[in-house]
Amino acid sequence: MTMWFVPRDAAARSMGSDEVAEALIAQGHDVIRTGSRGMLWLEPLVECAREPGGPRVGWANVDPADVAEAGLQETAANYLGVVADMDYLVKQDRWVFERAGVIDPLDPDDYVANGGLAGLRAALALPPGDVISNVIDSGLRGRGGAGFPAGIKWRTVAETPPRPHIGDPANAPAHKYVCINADEGDSGTFADRMLIEGDPFCLLEGMAIAAYCVGADKGIVYLRSEYPDAIEVLDEAIAIARERGWLGIGILDTDLSFDVEVYVGAGSYVCGEETAMLESIEGRRGMVRVKPPLPAIEGLFGTPTVINNVMTMASVPSIMARGAQAYAALGTEKSQGTQVFQLAGNIARGGIVETAFGVSARELIEGFGGGTLSGRPVRAVQIGGPLGAYLPADQLDVPMGYETLAEAGGMIGHGGVVVFDESVDMAQQARFAMEFCAEESCGKCTPCRIGSIRGVEVIDRIRSGEDPEGNTVLLRDLCEVMTDGSLCAMGGLTPMPVLSALDNFPEDFAPPVRGQ
Amino acid sequence: MTLTQDFAAWSSEEADQLITPIALTPGPILRCLQAIQERFGYVPADAVALVAQRCNATRADVHGVLTFYADLRTQPPPAIPVRLCAAEACQAVGGRGLQGEWAKACDEDPQLADVTGGNEPIFCLGNCALGPAAFVGNQLIGRASVDRIMAAIRQQQEGKTA
Q1: Average pLDDT per 10 consecutive residues for chain A, totaling 516 residues
Q2: Can you tell me the ipTM of this complex?
Q3: Does the beta carbon of B77 lie under 8 angstroms from any beta carbon of chain A?
Q4: Is B74 part of any domain?
Q5: Chain B within 8 Å of A212 (Cβ-Cβ)?
Q6: How many Å apart are CA A432 and CA A411, to the nearest integer?
Q7: Are A419 and B29 a contacting pair at CB < 8 A?
Q8: Whether residues B97 and B155 fall in one domain
Q9: Which of A316, A328, A296, A260 is nearest to A123 (CA)?
Q10: Domains of chain A
């Protein structure tokens, strides 16, 4: 029986995949709505299997009118052949995204048939301390950008006794939390969204493993409001997981009891900072907290709390299923395993590339990404989100890793790679970095709250030719104050895009020549 | 999956019923405000005292939360809000130009500005490989252009009258 597959991923829907699915259904075809494979330039990408479980062939950029008129033919120009054999996918090493785009994200049987729950079952067969050792041995580090070893964080929470919510009486129920930071606000990143829309049970499975390790009874996913599709899919997935006994009391017939709730953000970038996120979950303004105490010791409502990014947590099931050693063998000495890169901006073949650390930015942009969308030369690449550095085109051979990028004056962040062609005005980008910080600062510390506003003004003065040398010195001084004096990464890292633009593209900061 | 939102007219009794169960949970203020906005489309001034009372918080606390988050509105939303992504990945593919073209279209057609609220910039919609990205109502648009945005508006208007 022929089966058709059309993504329900928000990016695919933004290019009309709903209309394509409707057109196929109108012709009497059976359609399964999957996540996206992550080859976003091909969306809507429609796949077809002539027999259940058989190879799936695909068509790119399908127009509903094609479906209605001639139907999808293997002679058509947009025919892709067997999708799983495409270079873009074959060259990847997918651990987190192994099922996304393949399965129906809300079909629990499809999930199990494709390796789902193997990690949780493997973990539950071991004592919690051994599972933590596995996570440490895998080398898994925080994929939100900070790069802290996940297993060490889990061990701290495991060793801290549960506590009642702050303000509750001492004999009130004691808790520990597992909180997922899905406040994926960095421009150029969409991996968390795509994983949640394409394989939500994977995240829930990772959370259950973490809960087992640290003794947590409650889980929260803090998901940004800009992702309405992800919210809907995750809510449904949680309900299904409860029905199946994958969440709730006595998970998979063991003593593990753990439940998950979705908390929706409210349009604040700084709430992606972990302590601002905790404040927001507690219902307050998303103001950054002073650390220590670490959230692992006093986190949500004052209880010991694991906070991990979606990618970190979604790596855990496959690490437990396929082995910590196999994962650790990938990548580089200090950046082990795989990173889910997101190719974005002015790029011909944008999307998800999950591959071992150590790959160069050039291989990602030219090899996978096919260069710019405009066809003009690459001029700058911003890696790691709005707080990441702008690298010039001649520095793209740097191997991707936490330390290697830091040495190159950048950071890997959440793995976003935003490409700009030669039409970019880097002084304008530097100004935007300050403007964004001014807009999104929580306001708690002065360097970030005021410094960003002064930063915009100083860059404007440089660009208008008002004492450019003196004001450039002032800008560097201001950046130093923000870097050293800010409470969190928002103010502390905003200088990174600003200074990298200034250092790598000084010509863009020159004042306009008179008479031109 | 695309929602065309129809909101209820403000009623403090209805709001009270809506938030009372939320107010019993830990850290309720933001979620009370979100629930009110989801039902009524915005958070009217009257809601502040109500939320404060139910959550055992001060009005200042509630006001502080209400004014911190970009999502929370204190005025009713336009019929079909248009929000263009203003972040870097969309800038790299002409996002700034699109902002200008859209602003011009709204200047020339006050009715369009009224229906869409002009443009409330938003930072990142997670569609960074298919920019420029925009929300038209709750519909995400990839490779957005003024034409594609207008087509989505027409489609949603037809959906509402149908």
Answers
A1: 95 98 95 98 97 93 89 92 98 98 98 98 98 98 96 98 96 98 97 98 98 98 98 98 98 97 98 98 97 97 98 98 98 97 98 98 98 98 97 96 95 97 98 97 97 98 95 98 97 98 96 63
A2: 0.95
A3: no
A4: no
A5: no
A6: 19
A7: no
A8: yes
A9: A316
A10: 3-88 (3.40.30.10), 108-328 (3.40.50.11540), 338-421 (3.10.20.600), 426-509 (1.20.1440.230)
